[in-house]
Amino acid sequence: MNRYLLAAAWLPLTLIGGCAAGHKAASKSLESTWEAYDSFNKVYLDSAKYIYRNTNRDAAATDRWNGAAAIWCQPMYADMAMNAAALAEKEGDKERAAKYRELARNIIEGNIRHYTGFDFDDSNTTTGWFIYDDIQWWTITLARAAEFFDDDRYRDLAEKSFARVWYGSPKVGDTGSYADPDAGLGGGMFWQWQPLEHPKANQAADGKMSCINFPSVVAAMLLYDLAPAERKADAEPEKWSNQYGDFSRPRFETKQRYLDMAKEIYDWSVKNLTDSVTGMVHDNRHGDSVGGHPLIYNQGTFIGASMLLYKATGDSRYLDLARKGADYSIDVMSAEHGCLPWAHNTNNPYDQGSLEQGVYPAIWVQYMRLLADEDKDSEKYTSFIQRNIEEGWKNRDVESGICDGEAWSVTPSDTIIGSYAASSTPALMLLFPPSK
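-> structure tokens emitted (436 positions)
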């Protein structure tokens, strides 16, 4: 199996001029990467449960309403731990590799314990699953964990979560995220079921957001990579009926089926959510209306979906689209400060929805690693990411070791900082580390 999303490359890290004066000179040493990541964990990891806190002011990660970071962002922190272990292994640092491998395992298992044992049919809104993309983000990380730890249990969970999203749930009663064009639903993936307790069948004009469509492509491609080549279709899928019809949910798909699913959703998404000329990804579509301003994490999953399909098929169309998505991210969305934007609500920065947007750069860089590894002209991308790293490190709060996500300005020592924004600088450093 190919470690698509965990590979680390060793790139020269040069000092780049900053947007603002900082507390401390930037470091070329790999020690700065470990310091940044360890500081993030010291401030935000609830080591009693191995899930992450919401902000640096929360004493414990009790639940959604009391100190725990959002269910959909926890998998990004598990990704960071796997990336840290992969980096240490590449460096030959056996002690750190073992430490971060254990941490990654503990984070995943802690989340399984906290979130209903990963019963994806449990839709309670405190520790359960109540929106499609929340589940699909975990599908992606579980698939990565299955490959990283060579653990079929994580693959089984990833396939269950993917199936729950695609086909719906007999317990919840929703009709699934897949907007079957043969059923007049128009194609693509629906974002949510509503109302949460007694969902109605989705209609063609309901919301189809980029944050479920492109992650579904990524998830399908990672499962395609994991699926045994000789696997046959599930002969005993789960079946149920309700007021909306008869339903069937297989426990797993064949390798080819995962690829076909990925291609279908990708093609629909490029046509309906993306400007294939500029590389801009719209946030959402409702019927014939496309809207929402572009967001860095949607750019990232568009890049990732494109790259995974390119790697699987060799079709240069996918690589070209990945480049466009990256160029738009850098040339247009990051133009103001020369750094990745945090699209939070400046009028209400501590609103939960606003805080969660701080994790967007950590998602984006996970997929930019794929493009940078493949693109022979990647200097533009690596230089831009190096700039973000240098600015974020230089402008961190030295006492806590945390950057508030706005890498271009000094992080105040007395402000509320979400774990989401604080993840940006260490996430970039772990995937684009300095050379020895």
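The chain has 14 helices and nine strands.
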